[in-house]
Amino acid sequence: MARIVAGIATSHVPAVGHAVDSGRTEDDYWKPMFQGYEFSKQWVKDNPADVDIIVYNDHASYFGMDIMPTFGIGTAGKYDICDEGYGPRPVPVVMGHPALSTHIAASLILDDFDMTVLNKLDVDHGLTVPMSLMYGQPDAWPTRVIPFPVNVVMYPQPSGERCLAIGKAIRDAVANFDEDITVRVWGTGGMSHQIQGARAGLINLPWDLQFMDDLINQPEVLQYKPHLEYMIEAGSEGVELIMWLIMRGALGDNVNEVYRFNHVPASNTSVGHLILTPKD
């Protein structure tokens, strides 16, 4: 059967992608942040997986005000790179795993999650920046990918409780797939940041660190955290962190903390990163 072997959480700051694409990762401003991912890049090489389920949010790049799925899942064989206004990022096309993604979609729908099944999807920086942080600049990505977009940009967003629950349902679906493959689940976005208004540039590192502690040790506490608290404490875009709860739900009750990293600031955001593995 298939099995989930790790969870990865990371911010997906668009300026990070630009730094990679423009060869600026060694600049004084960016170097400390990218150094924090060197351990992770080596770790994923030493611990490969066949498929990455990447939970991310589209930033009105492919979706928009007309159509915004609460939970979506890509079931295509490949995913092109979105043009977010400056041309598509110069990264490889993302290759899918239609058999597993279709199986997960069916399983989640039968578990009463109303999924939007996406047979065509272009992916934006929410998905490609995390891949660049973990895999660098390869000619082809080293794993197959199942995009899992979540609405965190337009009211109403799903609750933390629902996100943790769908993560658990993903775990069950993967365990019931009859091919012997390994899977990682990624939660992306965050941490504290606000990109507009009077509080633009808000960063709350103590709150971020507590969130990471709770995510690892007591995610059931986070599932009831109201969206208003994310907005007050972590800024208007801090609610992206509910996507980390999907990753955490997919790992089971107890986890091992392999690696943790934080960096402030990166383009006026607080960068957070975790690698977790499920405890047997």
Which helices and strands appear, and what pairs or packs with what?
Elements: E1 3-10, H1 14-21, H2 31-35, H3 38-46, E2 51-56, E3 72-74, E4 78-81, E5 94-95, H4 98-110, E6 116-118, E7 122-123, H5 125-135, E8 144-149, H6 160-175, E9 182-188, H7 205-217, H8 219-222, H9 227-234, H10 242-249, E10 255-263, E11 271-278
Parallel strand pairs: 1-9, 2-8, 2-9, 3-6, 4-7
Antiparallel strand pairs: 1-11, 4-5, 10-11
Key attributes of the depicted protein:
about 280 residues, about 20% strand, Protocatechuate 4,5-dioxygenase, Chain B, alpha/beta, 11 strands, 10 helices, single chain, six-stranded mixed sheet
Short overview:
With 280 residues, this protein is of the alpha/beta class. 34% of the residues lie in helices and 21% in strands.
Describe the structure in your own words.
With 280 residues, the protein is of the alpha/beta class. The chain has one domain (3-278): 3-Layer(aba) Sandwich (Protocatechuate 4,5-dioxygenase, Chain B), CATH 3.40.830.10. It has 10 helices and 11 strands. Strand 10 and strand 11 (271-278) form a beta hairpin. Helix 1 (14-21) crosses helix 5 (125-135) and helix 6 packs parallel to helix 10 (242-249). It is globular and about 50 Å long. The two termini are 16 Å apart.
